[in-house]
Predict the structure.
Amino acid sequence: MLAKINQISVRQLLCIYIIIVLSPLIRLVPSYAAEYGKQAAWLSPLVSLLPTLIVIYILDSIFKRYKTESMAQIFEDIMSKPVGMFIVFLYFLWSTVLTALYMRYDVERLTGSIYPNINFIFFIIFTLSQIAYALRTDLTVIARMSEVIMPIIFILFGFLVLLLLPMIRHDTILPISYTDIIPIIKASRGSSGIYLYYFLLFFLSDKLSHKQKLKKQSILTIIILVVSTTIMLIAIIGLMGSSVVRRTPIPFLVAVKQISIINTIQNIESVAVAMWILADFILIAALIIVSLNIAKTLFNLKDIKPLQNIYILLIYILTLGIANNKLELETFSQYIMIPINLIFGLLIPMVLFATGKIRKKI
Amino acid sequence: LIHYLVIVLILIAISIIDVKAIIQKQLKKELYLFSSFAIFIIIYGYLYFTNSYYASISSLFNEIVVHK
């Protein structure tokens, strides 16, 4: 049983986590990893396991001491109020930019794959109005929705990757030697930057129950994600080769287009697009909830419901303004957002943990 | 600028609905944050719709970080 009616369990939060990382993992990681890791790129998710495990252990230690507080309150307690508030404000900006970024990626993918003649503004309005409607309810509704959607998305994803596996050419993923260690580490920045959204979700920690199961369930989740990403990279790079993958905007979609079952069932990329639409809906809704929850603690608000509609309008205008075109959006994502993700997802939690240990707060 | 005017009209509609709820509940801080968001939308929207180059967040950061 849940502790309170408006709380969600760690399992539900991890369902949201799997959905929200799956979409950016499929979009960004193949081309990013192939650019730096070449034929050894498929090993890069294994390196990303380490920073994510560090964050899991940090959060587990923090929640042994802080059982009911939100992450924003924890920051303020450990790092003093002014410093904590400043860092939490930076997290608010980060999650707002991420929301606009993923909203734009969502519509760019739709117009770039199956609806090339429709103005992307239509899709932004359509998606955001659906999210605004869904957010009239509580976080628990999104959490339960994620519990239903996550297995569907994961089965679809597994099905598509399995169909790709027989088409792999071994010469595109082998040989691998010790000279690939540095390229693999460089390539792992992409997947690490995305796995580390894990920390951002814990700004909902005040709405979380069963925190004692956090470490065990999180480790299991991250292992599942790492294995899935590795198999996906083997399938994509094995099929297309690293030099083609790094030049392709959405390699997964291009790879899926090549699937043919007994020469009769073809063009099943619409399955991948449907999966993405579902994942992006949860991703954007979850990021809006996280941002508003950060704002609630940061500004000491009593009720965030009246701010939801105007915040969604703000996201709409930021989605329009985040980039002039897709090339600009990809450059921004690759060169700016990935390093920022590593700072906010790994570096700041490590500083928080070290400060907590020094001040004997953890 | 028609698109901008439509956004401003939507903003006014949202304000009528949500500010009413905020005032009824006497939520002072929520009103300040609501006003800040509204001001940001009006200013940023104006910059974007008048084709100000630096209204694009990516252009600004890409120029500072990537092309420096």
The mean pLDDT of chain B is 80.
